Amino acid sequence: MEVIKSSNFETFNIGPLVLAIGVFDGVHLGHQKIIKNAKKIADENKLPVGIYTFYPRPLEILKPVLAPGTLISRRQKIELLSSYDIDYYLEQKFTPEFAALDYRDFVKNILKKNLNASYLVVGEDFQLGYKGEGTLDKLVETGEQLGIKVVGIKNKVIDNKRVSSTLIRELIEKGKLNEVKKYMGRNYCLNARIIRGTGRGNKMGIPTANLKLEDDYTLPPDGVYSSYVYYNGEKYIGLVNFGNNPTFPGTKYSIEVHILDFPYKELYFERLSVEIIEYIREEKTFNSEEELVEQIKKDILYTQNLLCYN
Length: 310
Prior knowledge:
This protein is of the alpha/beta class. The protein contains 10 helices and 14 strands.
């Protein structure tokens, strides 16, 4: 998959092509339905297929105070989409100036003139252009004038619920991580770097890696969660804790993961991914360090029983 940024669109000369357009925050099952339909159209017409998306996410520019946490980092999105056998990842830099574009100018000057799109594939409630005036019906009309076939894909519905990034965020924020896979198509996964912590876990005999997240992710409630951890091409079982470690007063919010059978060493600034599987328990204040250690051992045993056979 070739990654092309909007600064290079004017030199882009490969069309005609099929474009799936959207923010694709999460690349959930609804997004995957759009992508699969775009690929089907491309195969039937023997055309290349591209993903046209935006960075930063539009709401981060238009209403940053209201912008929710993301479900997937830029790096994750590119890596994931590359696994779908997409030919081009076309990233539009989203700015206030871009947001002010009339949807007709957007379709004419960017999608047609620069990218030579023959087909646009979008969700049925997709909108683009200034104030979202470019609804599906208007895009179809504009496309007909420019020789572009616009295809609207019906929303993906599971258990009478429309699959959406909003729904998935709600599940994460309520700690229902075991339900996320139903709508996302995979478990929720955070990319991070290891940073220096207090070293308290190592002193207790249960070493942890403190994490700095790669993006402003949507986070679950404070507490302990079972997880898989991916590092250096290997998969491990782990416990991840979100919160303030109330047993130790004055501790700041942190995200730390204890990884089973892991070769702990100097790993600062190394990358890893944490795939969150299930909520185990809330954070609580223990009467002693020993009591905390005993509880963590129980959490480890529960996680081993849960994940070793999955």
